[in-house]
Design a protein that fits this description.
Chain A: This is Benzoylsuccinyl-CoA thiolase. The complex is a heterodimer. By secondary structure, chain A is mainly β. Chain A is 0% helix and 40% strand. Chain A is globular, with a radius of gyration of 16 Å. Chain B folds into two domains: 142 residues, Thiolase/Chalcone synthase (Peroxisomal Thiolase, Chain A, domain 1); 236 residues, Peroxisomal Thiolase, Chain A, domain 1. Chain B is built from 14 helices and twelve strands. The chains are: A mainly beta, B alpha+beta.
Chain lengths: 151, 400
């Protein structure tokens, strides 16, 4: 069974998954998550946006992990809880996007400025089955074979 | 025309986990502030409450809730909400009416009763609420945001976990004799470093707790305060010189709670100042002073590392130099620019709608020379800094 995205329309799946943003047709500013209505660039009066795939690679702005299970509505990937790592990643479109690090990677595997690539992995299971989410995968490191994220 | 208002009185209910209704704390703080001012409650013509979002309807209409609890006196009423900056926004509301000549004496009150553990979003499935989504999609807690900022200091400026621990050691020492502080116990660096890691690199003792507590400030026009001072024969007036509650300027390029992304700078360009820098900058500009004029600062140490960020955001030293300032003892009482003489959030824990007011209470005591056991000698100018969610933040400058 294939996992379905935990949220509709925020990212594509497949071999080369990408985040889906909005691009203002007037000023060209890109937004993620997608926006509707009015452009948030205060100098722009645009009201139309096109869907745009964001760059799949970016550089680490910073990173951390979750040693304790976050409270609901977070749904843990496993029981017992296994800590996971998180990264804020600056992409060429000039914005920073948060995401968990891909399974098997922890805070020891990256530094500020390192290159990472977007992947989509199963995040949790709910009443509809497996749900997936985007994650950041370090480009130059091999994952450690574990069940979870952070070491 | 002067744009100053006077701080006639301040008061607090001690921070802790008392398990009582927030209204009771608020009334204790309000009565203490009124007694400190020597102003009877019936003379107050405006009450502004800091909203608390976890205490039901009474918390949403906090201004009226406190007014009723103190006994209806016919005063005008307002309630403010600006997340952690709630207290400062409430002060600003009071100040505006006073400066417009529409009110003479205002009572500003913030109080909270907080749940245990991580602050979590309100219940229910809310797929259009970023505060809900960040937990559901990413498991992104508040400490995780603090940890991102902390890790960046380490990788960019060479900060160490020992530096962060030393912030806690300093603040614990500062707060030892503060009667309103919840934690009054010396902490050694190794205790911080040996406490559990919550969000790497931050340990449990690097992160502030959530607390119950209340703070109140009585504001009045300078003329009213001068008349009052003649009656009571008191000394220099402590004045509010600035209250900055600016919002970010697009593009906001530093990741901020509760968002999962920043604005893009690709088209609009990287702004000259970060949001947090702009908060302090607007306060300095409004007060007509520069960072060198500041004698004491109360900043929002939600984490130990955030205190270092704020020192730089307020231009009390150059970017990347806060660790040096800390290591040389400059931010300790007796140093060049003492930071968090109250003990800060490290000793208080956060009581959201009361916290920005608590900072102003502390600076008032510091400027009056009444901060027993933690006095910054000769302090004449103080600044606060504080950050909220959703583009809120504040900085208040007080002077005598």
């Amino acid at each position: 069974m294939t996992a379905t995205p935990a949220i509709d329309g925020w990212f594509t799946t497949g071999d080369a998954p990408a985040l889906l943003g909005s691009k203002c047709t007037t000023c060209g500013t890109v937004f993620f998550p997608k926006t509707t209505g009015f452009c948030k660039n205060p100098a722009c009066s645009g009201e139309e946006f096109t869907e745009t795939e964001l760059s799949r690679r970016g550089r680490v702005w910073s990173y951390t992990d979750a040693q304790y299970q976050p409270p609901a509505p977070y749904i843990p990937a496993s029981d017992p809880y296994v800590p996971f790592a998180l990264a804020a990643v600056e992409i060429p479109e000039g914005l920073v996007v948060l995401g968990q690090l891909a399974a098997g990677f922890g805070v020891a595997d990256i530094k500020v400025g390192d290159e990472v690539e977007l992947v989509v992995e199963t995040s949790y299971v709910d009443e509809t089955g497996e749900r997936s989410i985007w994650k950041w995968r370090p480009v130059s490191v091999e994952p450690v074979e574990t069940t979870g994220g952070a070491q | 025309m002067s744009r100053d208002v006077a701080i006639a009185g301040v008061g607090m209910h001690p921070w802790g986990k008392w398990g009582k209704n927030f209204v009771e704390y608020g009334v204790v703080a309000a009565r203490a502030a009124l007694a400190d001012a020597g102003i009877p409650w019936p003379d107050v013509d405006l009450i502004v409450g800091g909203e608390t979002v976890r205490n039901g309807y009474g918390g949403y209409v906090a201004g009226a809730t406190f007014a009723q609890a103190l006994g209806w006196n016919g005063a005008r009423v307002a309630t403010s909400y600006a997340a952690c900056a709630t207290g400062a926004q409430a002060l600003d509301t009071a100040r505006a009416r006073i400066l417009a000549g529409m009110s003479e004496v205002a009572l500003v009150v913030g109080a909270d009763t907080t749940p245990k553990g991580f602050l979590a979003p309100n219940a229910g499935e809310r797929w259009d609420d970023p505060d809900w989504l960040r937990f559901r999609l990413l498991g992104m807690t508040n400490p995780a945001y603090f940890a991102l900022y902390a890790r960046r200091r380490m990788d960019l400026y060479g900060a160490t976990s020992e530096d962060f621990a030393q912030v806690k050691v300093k603040n614990a020492k500062h707060g030892l004799s503060n009667p309103n502080a919840r934690y009054r116990k010396e902490v050694a660096a190794h205790e911080v470093l040996e406490s559990a890691i919550v969000a790497d690199p931050l340990h449990l003792l690097d992160i502030c707790a959530t607390s119950d507590g209340a703070a109140a400030v009585v504001l009045c026009s300078v003329e009213y305060a001068q008349k009052l001072a003649q009656k009571h024969g008191s000394g220099d007036l402590v004045r509010i010189k600035a209250i900055s509650t600016v919002t970010p300027t697009f593009p906001n390029t530093i990741i901020d709670m509760p968002l999962m992304s920043t604005d893009s700078s690709a088209v609009a360009g990287v702004p000259e100042r970060t949001f947090k820098e702009s908060i302090g900058d607007a306060a300095y500009e409004e007060a007509g002073i520069s960072p060198e004029d500041v004698d004491v600062a109360e900043v929002y140490d939600l984490s130990t590392a955030l205190e270092l960020d704020w020192i730089e955001d307020l231009s009390l030293c150059k970017r990347g130099e806060a660790e040096q300032l800390l290591r040389s003892g400059d931010t300790t009482i007796g140093g060049r620019i003492p930071v968090n003489p109250s003990g800060g959030l490290a000793c208080f824990g956060e009581a959201v709608p009361a916290q920005a007011l608590a900072q102003v209470c502390e600076l008032t005591w510091q400027l009056r020379g009444q901060a027993e056991g933690r006095q910054v000698e000769g302090a004449r100018v103080g600044i606060t800094a504080n950050q909220g969610l959703f583009g809120h933040g504040s900085s208040v400058i007080v002077a005598r």
